[in-house]
């Protein structure tokens, strides 16, 4: 029943921010949990604070900022809108390749790599290099 109060847990999903209006159709939403190890608390999440107040939606105490470092570990719901800024250089998320040691692969084997970047526009290019040569 979509009219009874509901809770939405999208924790652990691979995202850093949420687009404004993403929850507009969930009129009975009362509790929202979107904890993720990449959560960037910047101007792009400002709308969440205003929206949660106007819609009486509680942001879970598990939804904690990871980036930027000055907000790391703080509950999103406890942050003031004025603290959610996008000025200055972006803090890029760091990733660790696991296992971190050299990998032996044979011709035809696959070795997946993942690249994640934030604050990109249409002029941004991502290039891969191996031994200083463009791949």
UniProtKB/TrEMBL annotation:
Extract the SUPFAM superfamilies matched here. L domain-like
Membership in a protein family: Belongs to the G-protein coupled receptor 2 family. Adhesion G-protein coupled receptor (ADGR) subfamily.
List cellular component terms (GO): plasma membrane; Wnt signalosome
Q: Which organism is it from?
A: Micrurus lemniscatus lemniscatus
Cite the entry's keywords alphabetically. Answer: Leucine-rich repeat, Receptor, Signal
What is a biological process (GO) this protein takes part in? positive regulation of canonical Wnt signaling pathway
Q: What is this protein called?
A: LRRCT domain-containing protein
- Domain (LRRCT): residue spans on this chain: 37-87
Q: Which InterPro entries match?
A: Adhesion_GPCR_A, Cys-rich_flank_reg_C, LRR_dom_sf
SMART domains, sorted:
LRRCT
């Amino acid at each position: 029943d979509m009219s009874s109060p509901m809770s939405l847990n999208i924790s652990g999903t691979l995202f850093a921010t949420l687009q404004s209006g993403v929850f507009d159709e969930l009129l009975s939403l009362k509790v929202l949990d979107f904890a993720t190890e990449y959560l960037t608390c910047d101007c792009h999440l400002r709308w969440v604070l205003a929206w949660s107040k106007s819609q009486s939606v509680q942001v879970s105490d598990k939804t904690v900022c990871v980036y930027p470092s000055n907000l790391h570990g703080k509950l999103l719901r406890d942050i003031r809108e004025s603290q959610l800024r996008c000025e200055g250089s972006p803090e890029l998320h760091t990733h660790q390749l696991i296992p971190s040691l050299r990998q032996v692969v044979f011709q035809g084997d696959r070795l997946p790599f993942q690249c994640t970047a934030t604050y990109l526009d249409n002029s941004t290019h991502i290039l891969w290099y191996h031994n200083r040569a463009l791949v």
